[in-house]
Amino acid sequence: MRVQIYMGGFRYIRKSGIGRAILHQTRSLEAAGIETTNSWWKPADIIHINTIFPDSVIASRIAKMQGKSVVYYAHSTEEDFRNSFKGSNWLAPFFKRWIQFCYNLGDIIITPTEYSKSLLRKYGIDKQIYPISNGIDIYFFLPNDKKKQSFRQKYGIAEGTPVIISAGHFIARKGIIEFADLARQMPNAEFMWFGNTNLSIVPQAVRDVVENPPKNLHFPGFVTPNELRDAYCGADVFAFMTHEETEGIVVLEALACGISVVVRDIPVYDHWLEADVHVCKAKTTEEFKEKIESILRGEKLQLRENGLKIARQRSMKEIGLKLKAIYEKEGFVK
Asked: May I ask the CATH architecture of the domain 2-135+316-329?
């Protein structure tokens, strides 16, 4: 079995969760003993398409003419397109129709969670849909106490000062405005948001947060995977205040590094993250503050070990084996 990973438009999304998901697929399949290629010139049984650009449509047509089975990854939904960039809410209904068209080009569809699968069903998509996590490299993202000191030294954080981090694009949906409000309510802690977005394409409210943040909120920008891993290992809490996700790879990364995680109580986390077992869940900024303070007091020690178990269940090899089983079941191997 050989799988082609379509890389068209990768340079535009390489810093996003979709970009990381594409890289994860290659590693997952190879961990399960499945050969992969990025080339059109090598024979392949299956093609993975992750993007919804016009060239992706062309790629799916060409692949079918070549006799390949098309696996379309549904990373995006109308719901997570809203409240992102300028004009996104106005464009959202058109975006929905476009992704319906794209996803229906697949012989099957893979989407990260049961929640995102349920959204696709509501769109009227009747193709076979498999909920499979994007996975996590548990040999790269793993607990390392030595990283805590080096992380704090790098950013000049005094010993004993609580550190709360988050990661993502500078968009309202990700909860960046609420993250700034949280920082204002906790002046004795340091807050860091890893990621970057061109401020010319985001609403003024988001731009104001980035350009005039509270004194204890810092924006290191887009950092390397090594630097982000060190931040997970060095911080006290990962606060993911997003309002909508199909999974959230950064949550898996944080769990794999053994940091206590607080997520917004939204449907995507209903089926696999149990409140006060694997993570803490909060609905309001005040609840985020309460949960974080309880973690800092040492009242949620179970989160780290239980979170690690969730991450390990979604290792590259586990995901690769699930994909292999699906492709054999669907008869994609010639």
From this structure: 3-Layer(aba) Sandwich (3.40)
For residue range 253-299, what is the model confidence (pLDDT) as tens digits?
999 999 999 999 999 999 899 999 999 999 999 999 999 999 999 99
Question: If DSSP codes are grouped into helix, strand and coil, which group holds residue 71?
Answer: strand
Beta-ladder partners of 35: 2
8 A C-beta contact, residue 16 and residue 249: no
Give the tokens for residue 231: 């931040």
**Residues 40/45/51/54 CA torsion (nearest 10 deg):** 60
Kind plus residue range of the DSSP H or E element containing 264: strand 260-264
Q: Which of 241, 242, 198 is nearest to 222 (CA)?
A: 198
CATH class of segment(s) 146-312 = alpha beta
Contact 89, 83 (CB under 8 A): yes
Query: Which one, of 56, 74, 63, lies nearest residue 132 by Cα?
Result: 74
Q: With a threshold of 0.70, does the pTM exceed it?
A: yes
pLDDT of the residue at 334: 67
Ranges of residues in the chain with a pLDDT under 50 are none
Same fold? 2-135+316-329, 146-312: yes
